[in-house]
Amino acid sequence: MPIRSSWSALFRPPAGKTSLARAVEWIRTHRAPGGGVVPHHKHVIGSQEVTGYLIPTLWDIGERDMALEMARWEASVQRPDGAFTAPDGTPYTFDTAQAVRGFLSLVDVHPEFEVNIRRACGFILTQIEPDGRVSTPSYALWRCADGSTFTEYANLYVVPPLLAAGTRLGEPAYSEAASHVLAFYKRRADLVEFKPELGTLSHIFGYMMEALVDLGEIELARRGLAQAAAIQSPDGAIPAYPGVKWICSTGMAQLAIAWYKLGDRAPADRAVAYLEPLQLANGGFYGSYGPGATYLPGEEISWAVKFFIDCCTLRAKQSKPGSMQRGADEESCRLRGR
Fold first, then answer.
1. Using CB atoms within 10 A of its CB, is residue 37 exposed (0-12), middle (13-18) or buried (19+)?
2. Please, what sign has the CA dihedral across residues 115, 119, 120, 124?
3. Cα–Cα distance between 55 and 67 in angstroms, integer?
4. According to the model, what pLDDT value does residue 281 have?
5. How far lies 262's CA from each of 200, 222, 267, in Å?
6. How crowded is residue 326: how many other Cβ atoms within 10 Å of its Cβ?
């Protein structure tokens, strides 16, 4: 995959700074006024979705002041109905669930965020249809620049924070709703199929695989990840879709995260090793790289940085003997309150 042949000084890291440190610095320098992180380097409005799921990442690596500032910004922009919105003001169930992730990571130390969790989860419950499907407006606008749309199955990533909120706050309604949504998607015969015609860009597929691992659906996750492993190049590259010659930076990071959580270190390490040299000198990543790339190839996207940081921390934890042996099982039990 001829992606690295045209490097310039843009990709040369400054001496003495690790890839993790540069990624954190990118987040620090790409915050909108008030505390949220921008969607990409050409944007000036904070992303409530990305800020939400970035908060646990920052908290986990010790950037707690920044995490708290972002959580307070999130709380300040929450709508009266509990929802969180895209930068254009459209409320999304998916985005709201990611804000819940952020608040949950801080609520034990900062209990004032419990009210925000409850309001957000209340909104999410209104967006779940009787059969368990997350309602259409939560994914209708997800599409690439080439006009292709993403699968609604990404809404699996709504389920873990809703389930965790039910456990943490002792609210059976949240846990029952989460189980209802999961059951709906598990009934889909093509749930873990990695195919372009299904809209499973590796980024979206990565959301799905991580969610399945976190929910303890290990067999389903392994079936999906096996398809990614089958097309991974020896150098670690994973095509954004089977059959294309370009990669999605975020998708590769997310698939690596799912593998790390399962304890499958080899494909994860190869993916991260491929990503590291693609990192820009300022710590950012373009959305995609390679011939024919269509997923934000000219934008430094904040969610790629978030998931890359998660890769780095999981890789470090996995390198410690025994530290990740029970990773997937422990996370599943924690979410289910066992």
1. buried
2. positive
3. 5
4. 95
5. 21, 9, 11
6. 12
Q: Which one, of 302, 224, 291, 287, lies nearest residue 259 by Cα?
A: 224
Distances (CA, A) of 239 to 8, 156, 195, 295: 23, 22, 11, 12
Task: Please name the residue ranges forming H helices in 30-158.
Answer: 48-60, 64-77, 93-106, 114-126
State the Cα–Cα distance between residues 145 and 138, nearest whole angstrom. Answer: 19
Angstrom CA distances, 96 to 46, 85, 157, 191, stand at: 14, 7, 11, 23
pLDDT (0 to 100) of residue 183: 98
Dihedral (CA of 218, 229, 142, 186) sign: negative
List all residues 6 or more positions away from 309 whose beta carbon is below 8 Å from its beta carbon: 20, 23, 24, 27, 57, 61
326-to-208, 256, 261, 310, 322 alpha-carbon distances in Å: 21, 17, 9, 18, 8
Angle (nearest 5°) at CA 22 between 17 and 27: 155
Residue for token pair 């659906």: 217
Beta bridge partners of 247: 289
Which uninterrupted H or E stretch holds 161? helix 159-169
Sign, Cα dihedral of 64, 66, 68, 70: negative
Cα separation of 249 and 125, whole Å? 32
Cβ atoms of residues 323 and 265 within 8 Å? no
H/E run at residue 20: helix 19-29
Q: Give the Å distances, CA to CA, from 17 to 10, 12, 14, 303.
A: 15, 11, 6, 21
Q: Note the pTM of the prediction, 2 decimals.
A: 0.89
pLDDT tens sequence across 286-332:
999 999 999 999 999 999 999 999 999 999 998 876 544 444 344 33
Tell me phi and psi for residue 300, to 5 degrees.
-85, 105
